[in-house]
Amino acid sequence: MTTGAIRLTFLEQIVERLERVGGAPVLREVRDGRFVTVTGGELLALVRQARASLATRGLKRGDRCALLAPNGIRWVALDLALMAEGLIVVPLYARQAPGELAGMIKDSTPSLICCSDASLAAELYKSWPAHPPVVLFEAVFSSESAANAPAAPPCRHADHDAVTIIYTSGTSGEPKGAVLNAGNVTFMLGCTNARLDQLMGPRQEPDSVFQYAPFCFAAAWILLLTCLSRNSVLTLSTDLTKLSDELKLAAPNYFVNVPMFLERVRGKVEESIRKRGGWAAAVFTRAQRAYMQRRSGASRPLDSLCLSLANAVMFPAIRKNVGPGLKALICGSAPLATETQLFFVMLGIPVLQVYGLTETTAICTMDDPRHIEPGCVGPAVPGIEMTAADTGEILVRGPNVFPGFWQRPAETAKALEGGWFHTGDQGEVNASGNWRITGRLKNLIILNSGHNVAPEPIEQTLATRLPEAQQVLLVGNQRSFLAALLTTAATNGSSNGLAEGRIRSVLDAVNAGLPHYKQIRAFHVVLEPFSVENGLMTTMGKLKREAISARYAREIEQLYQKKPA
Fold first, then answer.
1. Which CATH number does the domain housing residue 75 bear?
2. 425 φ, ψ to 5°?
3. Which end of the chain is more exposed for a tag (fewer CB within 10 A), N or C?
C-alpha cells in the first residue's frame, strides 16, 4: 500500500527554502544608506537562537506571545521562532498609542511580550503597570551557544491550528483580534506565489522586493512570508522619512503600497513638472490629455504627438526616478483613485490592486498582471468564492476565511452568518469577473432626506482635484446636506495653501457633476492632519470616522448652523 506525499505547511516550506539557499541573501535592512543583510543560513541560525531562548521560559504550545517592535531582521527571526515553537504570535504596531496597545494585550492575554527595546517597554509599563512579562530582543538573541543548537524541525501545524492573532484596524469601535490558522496561511501563500510567478515570468535571479508597511498589517505579513518562501530578497525600510532614498537603493521589482503613498508620489511628480514650467510642463499636460483621450477612443494630432514625445523622453526619466527596476506597484488596504492608477499606467508602471481584509488572510482578489482593468481590484483568487448580497455587501467563503475573532463568539457568529464572511464592504462584479469596491456599509451617510451616500468616491474625487489637502472626510449623517473636513499641515496658524477661494472653486467643479443630494455645501479646514499618533487614523492609513466626528463635533455643528453655499 502506498501513501501520498504529505503536504508541507507554510512554515515547513519556508524552512526548506532557507536551508536550500544556504549562503544566498534573503533579507536585508536599510541602515544609514547601506544594507545589513542575512543569508538563508544566517536567518535560520537566528531562529534557532530565539527558539532556544524561548524554550527556557516555561511556555507551552498554544500560548500567545506579543511581538512589539518595528520591522527588522530580528522581528522576522522571532516571528518564525515563535511559530516554530507552536506559539501564537500577536504582532503589535510599535507606533500605536500605548493605551491602545495595552487594550490589545489585555484582550489577547499573552504569556510573554517580546519587545525590541527598553523605551517601548517603558511606555507600555506607564499605561499598564501589571502587564505580562517582557523580554527584550537583546536578551533573546544574546546566547552564542543557542545559535549553534541543533536544528529542530518546526512544530507541525494542522490546518486548524492558530498561528497568529492580528488586530483589525478599528476604524470604528474597539479593535478585534482576528485569528488566522495554518490552513489560511498555507493556502494564501500558494495564491500569492502563483500571481507573482505570472508577474515576474521565468527567471533565474531572485525577485527584489521592498517593504515599508508594518508586519502587524496582514497584507505586509503575507508578503513577508511569501518572499521567504520564494526566490527573492526582501529589503526592509527602517526610516519612513528616507523612504525615497531607500527605494532607490533597494531598486525593487515590486512592493505593496497603500493608496495614500501612491497619491503622494503622483502629487510630487506633477508638482515637480509644474514648477519646471515651460516646454516640459506643456508637453506633460498635453501628453496626459492625449493618453486619456486615447483610452476613450478619441485623440488630437498635436496631443498624440506630445504623448509620443513624452513616451520617448519624459516618462522613462520619471520611471527611473520612481523605481528603475519596477515591474509593478501593488496596492491595497483601500480603494485607489482610478486617475492615480491610470497615471502610473501612463508612465509604464502597472498598478496591481488587491482587495481583502485581515479576516480573509489579507486577500480575496488580485489583479491578473495580464488583464488589468483600472478602477477594479481584479477577480476572486482561484479557490475563493465571492458574491454580492441584496444590499451590495460583498460575501466571501473559502480556505482564506478566518475561523473567528479571539474570544468573541457572538461577533464571530455574526461575521460568518450563513457560512459566508460578511465583509461590510459594498461592491459589484463585471462580466469579466473583476470586482469594483464601491464603499463601506458602515460609512454610508444617510441624509435626513432619506438619500444614502457612499462618501468614498466623492472624497477621492475631491482629493484628486484638491491635492493641497492632505485628507478629505465627508460628514452629514442625519443632516440636510453634506459637508467636508479638509486637513492640511499648519504653518504659523495658516491653512498652508488651502485658500478658501481655491476650495470653493474646486467644490463648484466637483458639485457640477453630482446630483443635488451628493453636493458638498460647506467645509472646514483642520490645521492638523489625521494621524496614528493623534488617534484619528489606523496604522494603514484608514480614517477613523467616528473618532474624527467626535473630536471635531463643535466645528461640524457650526457648519450646519450656517446657511449652506
1. 3.40.50.12780
2. -95, 150
3. N
**Quick one: three-class SS letters along 121-155?**
HHHHHHHCCCCCCEEEHHHHCCCHHHHCCCCCCCC
Q: Examine the domain organization and report whether 431 and 454 are in the same domain.
A: no
Is 498 found in the same domain as 403? no
Helix 182-200 crosses helix 10-21 at what angle (to 10 degrees)?
50
Grid coordinates standing for 391?
444590499
Q: Is residue 429 within 8 Å of residue 388, measured between CB atoms?
A: yes
64-68 sheet: strands from edge to edge = 134-136, 112-115, 64-68, 88-92, 162-167, 177-181, 404-405
Domain ranges, residue 116? 10-180
Q: 387 and 450 share a domain? A: no
| Residue that terminates a domain, selected from 441, 472, 492 | 441
Rounded to an integer, the average pLDDT of 281-299 is 84
pTM equals 0.85
CA atoms within 13 A on the CB side of 508: 7
Q: How do residues 211-245 score in pLDDT, each as one tens digit?
A: 999 999 999 999 999 999 999 999 999 988 888 88
- Please report where in the chains the cell 549562503 appears, as a residue: 23
pLDDT in tens, 22-42: 899 999 999 988 999 999 999
Alpha-carbon gap, residue 511 to 520, rounded angstroms: 7
Q: How many CA atoms lie less than 13 Å away from 27 in the CB half-sphere?
A: 26
Domain CATH code at residue 526: 3.30.300.30
Is the distance from CB of 94 to CB of 119 less than 8 angstroms?
Answer: no
Count CB atoms within 10 A of the CB of residue 149.
14
The answer to whether residue 219 sits within a structural domain is no
DSSP codes joined into one string, 274-317 = HHH-HHHHHHHHHHHHHHHHHHTT---HHHHHHHHHIIIIIHHH
Task: For 391-443, write each residue's pLDDT tens digit.
Answer: 899 999 999 999 999 999 999 999 999 999 999 999 999 999 999 998 888 88
**175 and 26 inside one domain:** yes
DSSP 12-73: HHHHHHHHHHTTSEEEEEEETTEEEEEEHHHHHHHHHHHHHHHHTTT--TT-EEEEE--S-H
Interstrand relation of 177-181 and 162-167 (parallel, antiparallel or unpaired): antiparallel
Find, among 61, 74, 146, the residue nearest to 114 by Cα: 74
Q: Report how many domains make up the chain.
A: 3
Residues 368 and 516 in one domain: no
Q: How many CB atoms lie within 10 A of CB 48?
A: 20
CB under 8 Å, gap of 24 or more: what pairs does 157-160 form?
Answer: 157/9, 157/11, 157/83, 157/86, 157/181, 157/182, 158/182, 158/183, 159/183, 159/186, 160/403
Identify whether residues 342 and 455 lie together within a single domain: no
Is the domain of 433 the same as that of 507? Answer: no
Q: Based on the domain organization, do 299 and 357 belong to the same domain?
A: yes
